[in-house]
Amino acid sequence: MALLLSLIFFFMFPLGNNGEGPPSPGYYPSSRIGPIGFDQGFINLWGPNHQSLDQGTLTIWLDKSSGSGFKSHNQYYSGYFGASIKLQPGYTAGVITSLYLSNNEEHPGNHDEVDIEFLGTTLDKPYVLQTNVYIKGSGDGNIIGREMKFHLWFDPTKDFHNYAILWNPTQILFFVDDVPIRRYPRKSDDTFPLRPMWVYGSIWDASSWATENGKYKTDYTYQPFVGKYNNFKIDGCAAATCPYFRFSFRPKPAEQPPARGALVYVQDNYKVYDYCHDPLRDHRLTPEC
């Protein structure tokens, strides 16, 4: 039985680099930024009765009555935004647990967004981490998503892992435990978010699309669905004091080794979807591809 479970885990969460996942990026941006308490950086946005804070760990949960979300005090032009997150094990199909940037409250129907979203799953399959970038879009059918999806080299339900977005005037980088997994460069002003955004986190029911394009729905016999967050990190250019879009945090470029080696390794071994390579997409709408 132990051998069978080990084989199941291996195929669900494949490892590389001698069983240790991607190679070291050689640079650890999260180590340069001290953590802040939840109350220092964030407020409850919705579902206050589905949110609790205990010794620095924020727990949010979804049940049949509600989910929950939180929002940063400040709006930012650029910066590094991260948190350590631990996901719900078991059946979580249809459930989204997220950390993201958005200005939808200020620009409804015409907003920018940068997403880290964990797509809930069935009992026999691993989580999918979806990254996405929207530019001047909305959820009304006109949105142009730029999704890139990954499996992880570990089980994200076993422990906290750090997930982060770095957004500056030249690029957007997505990190998992300081490993860059995606780089979205600024190729034109029309394909890059340039307006300030808030930082958000949430857990909610997205049964219509979250798990295998809506094939599997949220099953509330498994409720509550829980997401845990701690080790919040923000190093950003707050819009209230920042006169324009500029560098607020400068990591070593992801295209230089060894960071590029780690990025390429993840892209080669753990990427499971890339909008630029989707034959069903109209790539006239995504000229950066």
UniProtKB/TrEMBL annotation:
Keywords: Glycosidase, Hydrolase, Signal
Pfam families, per the entry: Glyco_hydro_16 (PF00722)
Domain named GH16: residues: 17-229
Protein origin, superkingdom: Eukaryota
Residues of the signal peptide: 1-19
InterPro entries xrefs: Beta-glucanase-like, Beta-glucanase/XTH, ConA-like_dom_sf, XTH
Family matches, as PANTHER family: XYLOGLUCAN ENDOTRANSGLUCOSYLASE/HYDROLASE PROTEIN 8-RELATED
This protein's name: GH16 domain-containing protein
UniProt organism field: Rehmannia glutinosa (Chinese foxglove)
